Amino acid sequence: MPDSGLSKLFITGVSPVTMDDVTSGFNIGTNVSLDTNINEFMGFTESEVLEILRYYHQAGQLSLDLDFCMDIMKQWYNNYCFAPDAQTVLLNSDMVLYFILQAMKGTKFPRDLIDQNVKIDYNKLRYLITIDKRLNGNFSRLKGIIFDQEIISNIEKSFPVSEVMKQENFVSLLYYFGLLSIQGEKRGKYLLKIPNLTIQHLMYGYIRSGFEDVDVFKIDMWELSDMITNMAYDGDWKPFFQYLSEQIEKQTAIRDYLNDEKVVQGFLLAYLNVVDYYITQSESELNKGYSDIYMEPFISKYPDMQYSYLIELKYMTRGKYSEKIQMEKIQDAQEQLDQYVKSDRVKNSMAHTQLKKIILVYKGWELTYCEEYIEMKTQKQGT
Question: Which domain of life does this protein belong to (predicted)?
Fold first, then answer.
């Protein structure tokens, strides 16, 4: 019969592992996942989001300021791109609709910015990053991506389940999971980056879960979140770093992972992000320099916060440590903090909060210096 069967079939949500199985017996299919002409099919453009916001605002269903909503969504839901030649970045449509639905329920900022439906369960990654209760090479790659915020890799369109552990296949899975987005090309491969704050928060959670899953590092998250609350509202910052330092000393397995400055910095970021009082910026440009950690207060969500933080971290291997070198590094950190605090970005984003400047010095995994830097201003003596 002329009308029987299917003339066209469009399949979405197919992982590269499934694709390998599907196409083995279905040899007339075309994988269009990386085609430029369907890029905008995968999410909302900025103009589309503004149109949705205006619609609900004009209908009296959305009372929050539209520019305010757009700024938040661009930080938390934006920067997706699914083709190397695409000119338009996209916002995650699920996240946008979730935010608007939550915002329509009242006049306040939505309490939860991350929809449970977009969270990639850690259990989906566990079998890829652990073997026999040990962290494998893919965990190191995941950790490197989080700490560097990017990776250069090919994107494999399909592969059998037996090859899922290979590096490029693992990175490709992170892309298909939505944890990485195409930001261009570099050295003949794709430049893949963490797209937004939502994914950044999820990634930090995977690092914490990975350490805990294989008994490398387990801590009381409830107690830790209380310490971050005290940092935000009371300016009581030292207990957080002292607690982590004490736990590192007790749980010796974690020490093997804290073997350079970038790793220590990433480790701290993973635990500073247990709660979302701060938008943590790492290696961000501030007044022609790059700060180790800027804890920008999330004033939009927590308008009564009282403290923000600039943290400068210095690292020495255990074999090269000396008190003289430590003092030189402390002085260097002081000069850098004096430079960063003058940044317009810091001045504008700290709002009404009091900015504290913190210096941390590590000798390998050991925290040897943990103090607030208070600049001594010279006063002219009257005659």
Answer: Bacteria
Q: Are strands 354-363 and 307-316 parallel, antiparallel or unpaired?
A: parallel
The domain locations on the chain are 32-117, 219-372
Is the pLDDT reported for residue 382 higher than 50? Answer: no
CA separation for the pair 120, 174 (Å, rounded): 10
Q: Give mean pLDDT, residues 2-23.
A: 69
When pLDDT is averaged across residues 133-141 and rounded to a whole number, the result is: 85
What one-character-per-residue DSSP string does 102-169 give? HHTTSSSPPS--S-GGG---HHHHHHHHEETTEE-HHHHHHHHHHHHSEEEE---S---GGGTTSHHH
Length, in residues, of the chain: 383
The DSSP H or E segment spanning 263 is helix 261-272
Candidates 312, 298, 305; CA nearest to 372 is: 312
CA atoms of 231 and 247, how far apart (whole Å): 19
Across the beta sheet with 307-316, what order do the strands follow?
278-286, 289-297, 307-316, 354-363, 366-372
Residues facing residue 360 across a β-bridge:
313, 370
Nearest to 49 by CA among 57, 39, 59: 57
Question: pLDDT tens digits, residue range 154-183?
Answer: 998 877 777 877 878 899 989 988 899 999
**Helix H or strand E segment including 286:** strand 278-286
Return d(Cα 342, Cα 365) in angstroms, integer: 31
pLDDT at 24: 58
Whole-number Cα distances in Å, 370 to 209, 241, 242, 326, 357: 27, 8, 8, 12, 11
* Pairing of the two strands 134-135 and 189-193: unpaired
Q: What is the DSSP letter of 257?
A: G
The yes-or-no verdict on residue 300 having pLDDT over 80 is yes
User: What Å distances lie between residue 137 and 77, 128, 134, 140, CA to CA?
Assistant: 29, 9, 10, 5
Chain centroid to Cα 203, Å, comes to 6
285 forms beta bridges with 290
